[in-house]
Amino acid sequence: MRQGRHFLQIPGPSPVPDRILRAMDMPVIDHRSAEFGQLGRTVLEGAQKVFQTSGPVMIFPSSGTGAWEAAIVNTLSPGDKVLMVETGHFATLWRQMVARWGIDVDFLPGDWRRGADPAVIEERLARDTSHALKAVMVVHNETSTGATSRIGEIRAAMDRAGHPALLMVDTISSLGSADYRHDEWKVDVSVSCSQKGFMLPPGLGFNAISEKARAAAKTNKMPRSYWDWEEMLKPNANGFFPYTPATNLLYGLREAIAMLLDEGLDQVFARHQRLAAATRVAVNHWGLEVLCQEPKDFSPVLTAVLMPPGHDADQFRKVVLDNFNMSLGSGLSKVAGKVFRIGHLGECNELTLLAALTGVEMGLSVAGIPYRAGGVDAAMTYLEQRPQGNSPAHLKVVGS
Ligand SMILES: *Cc1c(COP(=O)(O)O)cnc(C)c1O
């Protein structure tokens, strides 16, 4: 038994704010009642604002992996060809799932230290003069590496190549934390889930879809039932679901959307960027290396840190957990044991982050890892020089 709160600093599931926990502490209601219809309409409309879309958003009782599958089975057919990019572990897993559905994947190799390169995608699409590629599928925020892909630039590259492929994006760990614009970037299917930027427990999967994606679903040849978009969209029109929905998670979702919109999406994105930048200041000061090598692709959601050679990241994570009751993210597959990940998403502010960084710095000392002391001070200085929430200008707006 440890006193005080556990620091869950992994990049999802993220800590669930008290306000959301209280909102979910409700009796389950009849999911065919008028009261439920009201809840359903509120969350379906609210989710559109978070995806920045005027098109439909669907909510499945599922993990993010289920929402990946929904994107595939509603749009593609066995034997189709798609273009994917090896940004890291999650892109690799999505690719495996696509392949299991009998789809031929052109997998652009990557070194796990940057996002997808729009120029390489453009070149590949320009060569595909027969338009054999049916979709470009990219992970927006690669949670295994802390590198984001610039989706707006990828869309521009697709437009320049004049290619009609669908654009499908995994925004699972970026939605509600990093700027994401489904409509403006003309994304056809955006895939997300509940336990990252939405600050909810696991259990909800999302698909936001374009008209082009919905049209593809009318003619594609993949069998499906549970994931079928049209089955979902019919009752959704009145706020209902084709089967029993995750009612209490939807109460939480209603609260999460209110929290994101009350703060303002732009402020949410700016807060994540500020905290991510402060984290990198600390990491650089310690003399450790951030895994992502492309500054344009630095993730606002998490920072993956390389261990010095000869030191095991999982051993370090264990020292931090045992001594300071904090969970850090592990290195996944190719970078297992080589990196640890600091999540700074969702319900995270300056002091939460500084406490987490303090735990990391103390852990480096306890674990006997060579580092330069003072990383937390450097992060403090960075944040002191960029006051946000309590600046006089802000207080004036709040008070007026
Ligand atoms: C977490 C995550 C997933 C998997 O989501 P599950 O809910 O665990 O199925 C997929 N992609 C990315 C980028 C993620 O961060």
Automatic annotation (TrEMBL):
Pathway: One-carbon metabolism; formaldehyde assimilation via serine pathway. Residues 30-307 form the Aminotransferase class V domain. GO terms for biological process: glycine biosynthetic process, by transamination of glyoxylate. SUPFAM superfamilies: PLP-dependent transferases (SSF53383). Its cofactor is pyridoxal 5'-phosphate. InterPro entries: Aminotrans_V_dom, PyrdxlP-dep_Trfase, PyrdxlP-dep_Trfase_major, PyrdxlP-dep_Trfase_small, SP_NH2Trfase/AEP_transaminase. Its EC number is 2.6.1.45. Substrate binds at R341. Keywords: Aminotransferase, Pyridoxal phosphate, Transferase. It catalyses: glyoxylate + L-serine = 3-hydroxypyruvate + glycine. Belongs to the class-V pyridoxal-phosphate-dependent aminotransferase family. This is Serine--glyoxylate aminotransferase. The lineage of its organism: Bacteria, Pseudomonadati, Pseudomonadota, Alphaproteobacteria, Hyphomicrobiales.
